[in-house]
Amino acid sequence: KDNPRKVIVSIVLGAVTGLIGSVLFAFVIRCIVRYLNRTPILKGPVIFSPKIASKTLQIALSKENHLLGSSPNGKYYKTVLENGLTIAVKRLTPFESNSPESRRKSVKRQIQMELELLASLRHRNLMSLRAYVRENDGFSLVYDYVSTGSLADVMNRVRENELQIGWEVRLRIAVGVVKGLQYLHFTCVPQILHFNLKPTNVMLDAEFEPRLADYGLAKLLPNLDRGISLNTPPECLHNR
Can you give the residue range of the structural domain that contains 191? Predict the structure, then answer.
């Protein structure tokens, strides 16, 4: 009677051991595959526009540029490349200097993936990301320069009687902002919520066509206030 029991116990133990071994083997293989297929961390300037060369961008960023404005998370500059192209540069400092987060490869890789996603977006009413440069305590984002400035700048000039804009132009600005938000909030895959829409983040080109700026930066800026405010779109409340 003992022999059949031993045989059954041996079979059960062997089956369980084999199953556990198979699961562990599959887990190890999966980890190896994910490690080999992980996104490599790119060094130097990452360019998304054929009009911008890596070397000329580095030279331009190393010079003292014209300050356009500032925010709690960074500053905005205007600079001109050697080929005559004028660009706007936003220098972000999402982490404190020499903080552990700024040195983690996982954080660098996540930021890189988010920026590559933002660079892939193309819409008439969005400021397109043309390049970015990783720095010691942050990174610089490169956009097209729009000479008219932001909606806040235009509103100030109107109040000071330095500029007059008709209702047709005002309607065009409002419709353009809505179209940009509609693309971000409903058309994009994955969905991108702005979180920080305000007049200073609506840029206007020479024809007063609006382009949304600072969209998608909420994941990169831990200090950005994402609480409920006048700048928070209704979509954010539905996704909380």
Answer: 46-238
